[in-house]
Amino acid sequence: MAKLWGGRFQKDTDALVNDFNESISFDQRLYQQDIAGSKAHAAMLGECGIIPKEDVTAIHAGLDSILADIEAGKVEFSTDNEDIHMNIETLLTQRIGAAGKRLHTARSRNDQVALDFRMYVREEIGAVVSEILDLQTALTEQAAKYQDAVMPGYTHLQRAQPITFAQHLMAYANMLCRDVTRLEDCKARMNECPLGSGALAGTTYPIDRHMTAAALGFDGPMSNSLDGVSDRDYALELMSALSILMMHLSRFSEEIILWCSWEFKYIELDDAYSTGSSIMPQKKNPDIAELVRGKTGRVYGDLMALLTTMKGLPLAYNKDMQEDKEPVFDAIDTALVCLPVFTGMIRTMTVLPENMRAAANKGFINATDCADYLTKQGVPFRDAYTTVGKLVIYCTETGKTLEELTLEELVKVDKHFGPDVFVALNMENCAGMRRSYGGPAKEETTRQIEAIRKFIAQRRTK
Length: 462
Description:
Blueprint: H1 15-21, H2 24-27, H3 31-47, H4 53-71, H5 84-96, H6 98-101, H7 109-145, E1 150-155, E2 158-164, H8 165-189, H9 209-215, H10 225-230, H11 233-259, E3 267-268, H12 287-310, H13 325-348, E4 350-351, H14 353-360, H15 367-376, H16 381-398, H17 407-413, H18 421-425, H19 427-432, H20 442-460
Antiparallel strand pairs: 1-2, 3-4
């Protein structure tokens, strides 16, 4: 088959080269963006008097028919035409004749692919954000139910201080807020139109780039044509944001895996979001969380692949940049397959607050509260810290907890202890009295839940 670019060539492309060079096998998913961009370009050419208005009408009708046929599964793309752009242009010319050959006036495949890819990324950002908001909704639902569920907070995976399950969930909800705003920032920054940059140097035709930018929902055209065809920062920025999102999901997955183990047993995953063993009938495996944790590395790899591709490229377009799409597609697809199943897992899990509370009784996680009690009695904090350290040693030797010590035992170590110390040592009070902004007290987790709900609502109404 003769190539659309084959004017100066006297030999056919080798079959191996043809297969090696093609991108239609993966960039065919850009067909909607390619057709939308071509319609805007044709309309602009007609308005600027570059092609006849009747050709614009024919081009639009032809593109609409191609779109309908693609979505009906009636179009078979050809590797001979290499990519989605040339496949659609070939189909258009076959259907409407000479008018189809005028569509490519004043543009190049370089600015065409830059436009299609940018539009695709812009649309997919919205899909990812929507899924994140669904996950945040599930977190607020669970957090609202368990504001009084005391559990150990951890540092170094050692029991540290009393918190509540609601506060723990809200920590992840806040991470997801940053993921959303990072994606929003990426979408805002990338919303410039490369169409009209041509191959690299613009065009001698009297085109109106502002017209096409507005028609396609961009804030305006990119201000430099070299940058217009060679920029892939937005793709890198997207994959960076997705990598951070997946890191958050992976950290959460690790905790889910721990929490549903018999060693913790803070939660139980729903049967619909667990799997079994082929040999051990007692097993209930957290495969969803484990797969999310595993797929995080895949998204990291996608980011590194494109960073490596771009790092040595001179301006402007290079064929290396054909390698931009598959990692971006994969990163988006991975995030979009992980988020909804993760949301379902969170929404359906059974929380076991009695096990959390039993764990809170161990590990002396109210030791800081004991020291704070002495400090409020006038004891310097470092002296109070040393005193409580001695009490912990005594408890370890006698097999007691701080709450189980008698007032007489406490006073032997420090005379500042009084009967009200047991109020300070109560686990519910330890969490409930932490009313500082962002803490586990119920009034604070209520504020946090409402803040996340407001964040979600603001974006749902946009």
